[in-house]
Structures are given as structure tokens and as C-alpha cells.
Amino acid sequence: MKALRRLLPPPRTALTSQVRRCSGTDSDSGEARLEELLKTRFPTASAVRVQDISGGCGSMYEVWVESSDFQGLSRVKQHRLITEALAEQIKDMHGLRISTSVPES
């Protein structure tokens, strides 16, 4: 039983308290800043959406971009364009989820 306890992750209470501590930050401003950067980089995008999925900390975001700029590119290249557009901001993030698509004709 002791060997099993060493293999298990620590209790989630530490994570919960971290989320609770940082939930007072203004995640809307971080979302708006990232959305503006993406709209500037992809001016013909038909949809750009950014959501803070870190519980309000601004440490993890999910972005959705639909743009004709992605036409003919692999998903990896599409995502690379997003990460290049947000290169400076990504340095301060824990993670980034990216979804991209090409508008239907």
C-alpha cells in the first residue's frame, strides 16, 4: 500500500487552492488582448474566439480561428501560424489549445 501511495499524484486540494487564489484576475482583458492580436494577424478571418480555460488565471487559453489563410495548409502549419502570431504571449502561458478551420465556400 505504501508503494502505491508513492506512485499516486498528490491530492487535488493544492490545485484547487491555486485556482481559487488566482480567480480574481481579469481574464476578459487577456482574452480580448489575444483576440485582437489574432484578428490583426488574420484580418480576413471569418471567426476568432479566445477563452481563458485556466479558471481566470490567464495561464491557459483555447483559441478558435477560421480563416481562408489556412487554405491548402496542413493542420500543423495552421497551428504554427497561430503560435507565431502569439509567440510573445505564449511565453507567459502554461498551455494553449488551438483549433483552426477554413471557411466553407
> What's the order of the H and E elements?
HHHEEHHE
Strands in their spatial order, largest beta sheet = 1-2-3
Total strand count, please?
3
Number of helices: 5
Overall average residue pLDDT: 83
Give the % helix.
40-55%
Structural class: alpha+beta
How much β-strand is present in the residues?
A: 15-25%
Q: Kindly report how far apart the N and C termini lie.
A: 60 Å
Contiguous runs where pLDDT drops below 50 for at least 5 residues: 1-5, 11-21
Looking at how many chains there are and whether they match, the oligomeric state comes to: single chain
Rg calc: 18 Å
| Overall geometric form | globular
Instruction: Please summarize the sheet with the most strands.
Output: 3 strands, mixed
Task: Based on the model shown, name its key terms.
single chain, 105 residues, alpha+beta, three-stranded mixed sheet, 3 strands, 44% helix, globular, disordered N terminus
Descriptive overview:
The structure is a single chain. Residues 1-5 and 11-21 have low confidence and may be disordered. The relative contact order is 0.17. The chain has five helices and three strands; from the N terminus they run H-H-H-E-E-H-H-E. A three-stranded mixed beta sheet has the order 1-2-3. It has helices spanning 2-7, 13-22, 27-41, 75-85, 87-90; strands at 47-52, 60-66, 95-101. With 105 residues, the protein is an alpha+beta fold. This is BolA-like protein 3 isoform X3. InterPro entries: BolA (IPR002634), BolA-like_sf (IPR036065), Mt_Fe-S_assembly_factor (IPR052275). Belongs to the BolA/IbaG family.
